[in-house]
Here is the input.
Amino acid sequence: MKKKKSTIRESYNDRILLILIYFYLSVITLVVLYPLVYIVSASISSPEAVTAGQVWLWPVDFSLEGYKEVLNNSSVMRGFRNSILYTIGYTFIAVFLTIIFAYPLSRKNFYGKKILMIFILFTMLFYGGLIPEYLVVQRLGMLDTPWAILIPKAIAVWQVIIARTFFQASIPEELVEASEMDGCSSIKFLWHVVIPLSKPIIAVLALMYAVFQWNSYFDAMIFLRTEDLFPLQLELREILITQTQSGGNLDIAEQQRRQQLANLMQYSLIVVSSIPVLIIYPFAQKYFVKGMLLGSVKG
Amino acid sequence: MEQSLDQSKEIKKVTQRHLAKRSFQRHWQLYLLMMLPVLYFVIFKYIPMFGAVIAFKDYNVVQGIIGSPWVGWKHFENFFNNPVAWDLIRNTFLLSVFQLAVTFPLPILLALSLNEIKDGIFKRSVQTLTYAPYFISTVIIVSMLILMLSPRTGIVNDLLGLVGIDAINFLGQADMFRSIFVWSDAWQVTGYSAIIYLAALAGIDRQQYEAAKIDGASRLQKIWNIDIPGIMPTIVIILILSVGNLMAIGFEKVYLLQNPLNLSTSEILQTYVYKMGIINANFSFATAVGLFNSIINLILLVIVNSVAKKISGNGLW
Here is the structure.
């Protein structure tokens, strides 16, 4: 209502500014959109058309060759399976640890919570370094095991803060006291009352952790040697980046064969590997926004 | 006077102890449960911090972190005496500053613009679409860059060819590396980073707009005098956080974009630490370089925080 009134009285300059804003937003959106459309179009065009540069917006010579190649590629499929397992396992561990840490920190008279907050916030300020971190993982015997993917990044400080803010706001102290009066233990309360009441925040945490794990390659590159354990992102790096950037010391014929294979399936590979994220994107968008807002409340 | 002060201190101590005891009695299960995440932070965050002492030692696997012999500043001296050091520091610094200069203002501009238009399909589509690239993995972003910028088959060179420009090997040119890195980053995160400013804008008191309308303020005046001051605290916090991370730039992406041809601008401190430490197993030396990097970050954060506090009254602590 209010807005309508103001448009009627809008001055000439205001209208020009508004047109400029619409123009600017349209340009930004097109710039963001174009590469995505191009990749999808290229992935369903014939490899010849792509190589010849005929595809620039819409698919040319519709073909699913690339997708067939991706589905027949055993290392891609293995990576896909590994990534699903890592993502599920990691998300469970991370959400669990985050909740059992954030909930006590949200209680008003939980003694020591100030020190514990400083204890975790300090880790955001100062980083021990890649090498000492690597040596710890090595010392624990986790190198080249799935644990190296599941454990070392299991809690993010930011997520603890988000969860704590949520618990502070939505689990009132009176509820805790009432349940204590009834003889309910802290763990029982956490399990039967807090968790059912916290589904939105659990969704936020789970999505953030899951997307992080699905998209990460770096820990796997450092900690894993056995190809059978590689997550999808690491396989993608091998196929899409390492092999196209430099042939290494492979012989020419092998190089050419790989080049052709890569050409054939690289666009479809990009699409396939992003599908899980695209599926959850509608939910993720909503919950990520929520998460960011919770995290930005200082408290 | 002194006595009463002592007394009140004493009372405070007693009540503190009392509070602690009550809290432990009441929440002992939570304390027990919490051991697990606390242990996580000790093992994966604090032990590496102490493990960083190997920067001052000659680490070897047999003697371990504690047993290895002390060598003082040897590794730091080796690093700074190597001319490569200054190239690395310069590369890291330039890349970070360039990135900050681009990716810091763009989300603010986007949020201010989105705030001006009415809710509806257009606004929602712009938000949804600009936000989407945030969810694409670094590996995929870099793959897309390689594919699209390829000199032989890339779409960018195809389009340039149409207007008669010869093919450019973008990723093979050292002087283009920073632009590619920074602008692709802007492409990926601008929409996401705008969210926080949009939230701050939504939190501005409506009465201010009413008053501005009565005074006959133009749109631009309203943005300048209400919107921007309204989100200033958020802007300051985000700026502090970004400057604090200035030298901790997106290592994963830099590493993937590297190739022998662009190394003269794309080799930064962290990629160097990775190569020296993990690949060459030169643990102590690499730790020294990494420690240098972490300390610069910490110093930057402290400086920016205190400057921001003086100027705007807002800070992280």
Summary: Chain B touches chain A through 98 residues (CB under 8 Å).
